[in-house]
Amino acid sequence: QVQLVESGGGLVQPGASLRLSCAASGFTFSSSFMSWYRQAPGKEREWVASITSRGDNKNYVDSVKGRFTISRDNAKNTVLLQMNTLKPEDTAVYYCYVPRFGRWGQGTEVTVSS
User: Fold this and answer.
1) Positive or negative: CA dihedral 81, 69, 74, 45
2) Are 110 and 83 in contact (CB under 8 A)?
3) Dihedral of CA 26/33/97/11: which sign?
4) Which pLDDT value is given to residue 38?
5) How far apart, in whole angstroms, are the C-alpha atoms of residue 19 and residue 99?
6) 7/31 Cα distance (integer angstroms)
7) pLDDT by residue (tens digit) across 29-69?
8) Adjacent-strand bridge partners of 112
9) In contact, 35 and 50? CB cutoff 8 Å
10) DSSP for 44-64?
11) Could you tell me which of 43, 37, 40, 22 has the C-alpha nearest to residue 95?
């Protein structure tokens, strides 16, 4: 079955970097559009970034443009989110999502705090 497993979250100071990873299985990853979402405490889940199946088109929410980079490795069935210059407002649980199947991962928690 479709499975998404995120990893890479943690507690970091403002200005630091983290790289999130999402390992996919149970479907043809190389044909699938992929997205990252996040949900901050007390807020609704919001879209963060998306990448097309071949990685040739990427989009970001305005608040992370220039700081976050989404990428994928179709040989490893993995989608990544490189997060630089992290801010306290980036604190959230980050989720991997495959729209084609409407499936979410379990999430990985990112906390940015001094």
Assistant:
1) positive
2) yes
3) positive
4) 98
5) 22
6) 22
7) 999 999 999 999 999 999 999 999 999 999 999 999 999 99
8) 12
9) yes
10) --EEEEEE-TTS--EEE-GGG
11) 37
